[in-house]
């Protein structure tokens, strides 16, 4: 029987970490624990293996029994830029353990990539941006916002391929935008997260943390100012003036004036807006 003291211990202290070599059965897979990748108060992440294939096993601790993450991840499966969901188990195999099995990204998340390789080549950064945006469009059309689009939640498989993962922070979208708007504030915020990530990949640092850089960036209105910024920060080979102006436009204070990249695909609300348009025209 648990004492009162144990009741107050964090779940990480009560539920032991799976040891190296331990075999976990999850769905049709029997995976063996190879490495603890990360531990925090709500999750543990392991690299596991079956045969010669690596997977990631994410353990959602009872303080954080996240059905939403598992069911959302499963619902989004099948898109080329969404980390592949493999299986999940909600406490039936191991009481108190919520397990999510997914494909393993050999280069880790985009923070790992920047730490290991420095800023990415321009074409790779833009390719990754389009891939993230297409995953975001897919999510929104299925009625979910991610709410944490950030380099730590985008995973690298090669210099041609990245995928969006970690669906534990978002929610379902319950509302439609105000009449005529293309998306809700939270959907727009997901796109802005992808643009933050693009800047991080191009520059190799998180620009919002460099206050001086960010103030100058946000003040850009004309090509001349963009040109000056590129010269002052030695960014001529990194981003063109046109690209910098385009990136800047995503931070327009009115979110509905921000562009929506082509890679996003069809708007979730396009059907709704078409119907409203027809209604207005015919009245
Ligand atoms: N599919 C994966 N392949 C490789 N590494 C992964 C995979 N999923 C997660 N990781 C790594 O596991 C670690 C923990 O990931 P997790 O998403 O649980 O936490 P986080 O991203 O640090 O936190 P947050 O929930 O705030 O995003 C990160 O370093 C991440 O890069
Ligand atoms: Mg994460």
UniProtKB/TrEMBL annotation:
The keyword Nucleotide-binding applies. Residues 9-283 form the Protein kinase domain. It holds the Pfam family Pkinase. SMART domains: S_TKc (SM00220). SUPFAM superfamilies: Protein kinase-like (PK-like) (SSF56112). This is Protein kinase domain-containing protein. The keyword Nucleotide-binding applies. One of its GO terms (biological process) is regulation of clathrin-dependent endocytosis. PANTHER family: CYCLIN-G-ASSOCIATED KINASE (PTHR22967:SF105), SERINE/THREONINE PROTEIN KINASE (PTHR22967). InterPro entries: Kinase-like_dom_sf, Prot_kinase_dom.
């Amino acid at each position: 029987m648990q004492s009162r003291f144990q009741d107050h211990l964090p779940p990480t202290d009560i539920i032991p970490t799976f040891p190296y070599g331990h075999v976990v059965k999850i769905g049709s897979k029997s995976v063996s624990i190879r490495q603890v990748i990360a531990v925090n108060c709500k999750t543990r992440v392991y690299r596991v293996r079956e045969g010669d294939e690596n997977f990631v096993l994410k353990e959602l601790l009872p303080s954080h029994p996240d059905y939403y993450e598992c069911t959302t991840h499963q619902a989004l499966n099948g898109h080329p830029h969404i980390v592949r969901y493999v299986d999940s188990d909600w406490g039936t195999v191991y009481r108190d353990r919520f397990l999510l099995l997914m494909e393993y990204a050999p280069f880790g998340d985009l923070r790992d990539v920047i730490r290991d390789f420095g800023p990415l080549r321009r074409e790779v950064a833009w390719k990754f941006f389009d891939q993230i945006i297409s995953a975001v469009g897919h999510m929104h059309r299925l009625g979910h916002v991610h709410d944490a689009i950030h380099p730590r939640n985008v995973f690298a498989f090669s210099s041609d391929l990245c995928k969006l993962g970690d669906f534990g922070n978002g929610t379902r979208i319950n509302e439609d935008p105000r009449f005529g708007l293309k998306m809700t504030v939270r959907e727009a915020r997901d796109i802005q997260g992808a643009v933050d990530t693009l800047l991080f990949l191009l520059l190799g640092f998180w620009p919002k943390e460099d206050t001086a850089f960010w103030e100058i960036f946000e003040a850009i209105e004309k090509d001349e100012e963009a040109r000056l910024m590129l010269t002052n920060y030695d960014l001529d080979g990194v981003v063109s003036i046109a690209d910098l102006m385009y990136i800047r436009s995503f931070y327009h204070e009115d979110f509905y004036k921000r562009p929506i990249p082509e890679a996003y695909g069809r708007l979730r609300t396009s059907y709704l807006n078409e119907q409203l348009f027809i209604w207005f025209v015919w009245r």
